[in-house]
Structures are given as structure tokens and as C-alpha cells.
Amino acid sequence: MQKERIRDLYHLQNTVTYIPGDTLSIIKAPATEDGNAEAGYKYMVEGNAFSTGIPMEIYKFLYKIKDSKLAQLAGYSKFSLNDFVIFKNDKGRLTATPGCLHCHAQQFNNSYVVGLGNSYSNFQSNSDQYLKLIKAAIKAFYGKNSDEWKTTERAFNAMDMLKGRIRTEMQGPTPAQKIAEVMASHRDPVTLKFRADTEYFSVPPIVIPEDPPALWISKKRKALTINAMRQGGVLKHIVSTSLLTLKDTFEAREIYNHSIDVWAYIKTLQPPRYPFPINKNLAEKGRKIFVQTCSYCHGTYGEKESYPNKLIPPDIIGTDSLMWKYFIKYTGSTNWFNKSWFAASDPKSFTKPQRGYVPPPLDGVWVTAPYLHNGSVPTIENILNTKTRPRYWKRNFNKEEYDYEKLGWRYKTLSKPGNKKTYNTDIPGYGNYGHPFGDHLTEAERKAVIEYLKTL
Questions:
Q1: 125 in a domain, yes or no?
Q2: Is residue 65 domain-resident?
Q3: Does the predicted TM-score (pTM) go above 0.85?
Q4: Is residue 84 a contact partner of residue 59, using CB atoms and an 8 Å limit?
Q5: Range of the domain at 347
Q6: Tens digits of per-residue pLDDT, 276-322?
Q7: Contacts of 323 (CB under 8 A, 6+ apart)
């Protein structure tokens, strides 16, 4: 299966080159309703956006063994296991499920940073034994006819559907859009009801890796995704993440109503401050270089902030092209979405494949390693000098080792591909090329720019 996936990655890379007659565009998203930020945070940590999960007693057992091999089998680590949402199910029983913060929060510098993309994700683990154990424990403890098992069963149905279809080629990146794509393929677009025995569109085996973006940059974007594909009403796109466990359109509308508050909370998020002294004179030199070199795509910061929301064509940005190529060639999920409840009911959202990527806002960029949309570059120093980017590299997933000067993960360069913890930039979708815009700078100028980026 792994050989077939990699073969398909190479085939996609070499067969899709352009969109006939297409124009690059990002429309202005419609205004959202005013929400309650406090209620939004509460819903993120106690809400039922993912309305099925495991009983609280089972979760407590898992949490106690968060550093064990059993937890690692399921892809969890001590940096991410505590991001479960605890909510009361429709029977009034406490239930735990991985929620939004599974991808959009992370332990960093002894703090739990809400909004920081989780770079410890592990979608390579074979968790079959782990899941079998949990199934057996729930049935034995509560009974196979119990409400606890009936609630949990929907979660296991989703896991069975995703089994073997969302594996990344290495640890770190996530298959977020693949998860949504697989689950959508088994949902009626009008009712959103799940049908394990029906496939509404075919899903190719290719998995495109993504580095989870920081949530605090979302308020500046017109389109949520790096390829500007998801446009229109932002709240509907937030709700679409619930396709993993969603019951129907009635539940989708309930989640939508809560998403008004969630969006209000997201708009309050701010990046953590750089924790060490900053050379102000050097940072000011870096700011001037940044304005001349980087602001056209990434915007300006300070008292007069601006963010251009530009969609940059691939022949300019030059970064790994598999993500935009995938959605041009395989249109099943696009067509499904654009005739589904998400597009048909107000406020309307839509998806449109685009040729290129949107450079993100750089608020808090110093803490968001690794870099590029696939997480292929470990530090900002490497971003600003393409010659220094490692072809094969690995970082410590068991201990936080951050380089506060180069701004990124401390890493080890390898001479050849390694195990699943080694980033292999030779594989299509995982390339570290492109974005050469710092190559013309001197070492002193790069150092100044890095000093300035610490201030954002």
C-alpha cells in the first residue's frame, strides 16, 4: 500500500500542470454574526462538535498512560494527549473525544498554547491493537447493549472508514483534508447522513501532508486554507470539520450556531511573545529589509498593519505543488461540497480548486515551526536560505528542543532516508523547495530579518 501511495504521488506530480481558462482569485468572505468569545472557548473545550467519543472512565485510564507505548500506538504523545474535549452526551454522560485542539493546540515552553498548530501529530501509527483494546474494554465494562457503547460505536465506525487511508509518509504533518474527504464520500450531500455502504464519489489513495496553521492568523484570511480552496462563509467551513462524527443537517445547524461563538473566540487569539531579549536596533534593520523583501506577500505589522490576501501562482512561489494539483485532478470532494448542505443553505460556502498558494500572515511566526505548508523546513533560517535546507532531517518528538535563534526545531541532518520520524523531502508532496526570496540577502541581513520576526 505504501508503494502504491508513493507511485500515485509521483504520477500526480508529473501529470497536472495547469488549469485551462482558470483565473486565480480570493473573494471577500461575507461578514459573520457577532458571537460570544467566552462561550466559544467553552464550546471548544466542552462542546459536542464531535458528538461521539469514549466514556470518561476510559479516557482517565488513557490519560494516566499518556507516555506509554499503548498511547503511542494511537499516535498520541505527552504534547498532545491532553487536548481531548470533555462533553456531556445526549444521555447526560461525560464523554471524551479529540476536538479542534487536537490539531490547533500544543504544549510549548511549559505552557499549553491554544491556537498553535500541533506539530507532534503521528498519522503513521498502526492503532488497530489500541482500538481493539478500547472496544473490548467498553463492551466488557458497560455491556455491548449499553448507551456508552452505542455512543462510542459511531466513533469506531468513522475510524474503520479511515483505516489505512490517512497515513502520512512521516510523523509531523497531518492529513486533515483527506479525513474530511473520506468522511464526505460516505455522506449524503443533502442530508449529511453517514452511509458505510455507499460511496458518493471515489477517493484516491493519495494523502497530501499539511502542517497545521496557527489559529490566530485565521481572522486575517479571506480563505482558510493555504490553497485558497475553501471560500465563502467561513463558519460553514469550520462546521465541515465535524464530518468525522456528524449525524445529519440538524446537528450541523446546531454546531453552526455554536461556531458563531467559536469564531468570536478565535478572533481574540494572540500569538505568544518571544520569551527572550530582542536586539531592537538589529530588529529595526530587519524590519526595513522585511518591508522591501517580504511585505508584498506577507503584509506589514505594527501600528499600520496590512495583509494582502494574495494567491501566488506556482511559477512564482515555487513550493511543492502536490496540494493544488490534487484538487485540480480529483474533483469529487469539490463537486460534493458545492451541492451539499454547506453550499445550499445560508450562509453559503463553496470550494474552488486554485493553482497556487496564499502566503500566510506572520503573526507569531517564530513559534510555528516547521515551515512551508507541508512542514518540510525546520527553521526560519532555512526558509531564508534555500541552500541550508536539509534533504533528510529528523527532530525529537519525545522532548521539546527548540532553537530560539534560528527560530525552529533543532534537527539532525541525515545522509539518506530514515525511519518514519525522518522527514524525506524527496517524496512528492513533502518537497522543501521554492520560496527563494531570502537567497539574495547577506548573512547579516538574514540575521536582522530573523531578529525582526521575533517581534511579531
A1: no
A2: no
A3: yes
A4: yes
A5: 2-35+170-453
A6: 999 999 999 999 999 999 999 999 999 889 998 888 888 889 999 99
A7: 208, 210, 226, 227, 357, 373, 374, 429
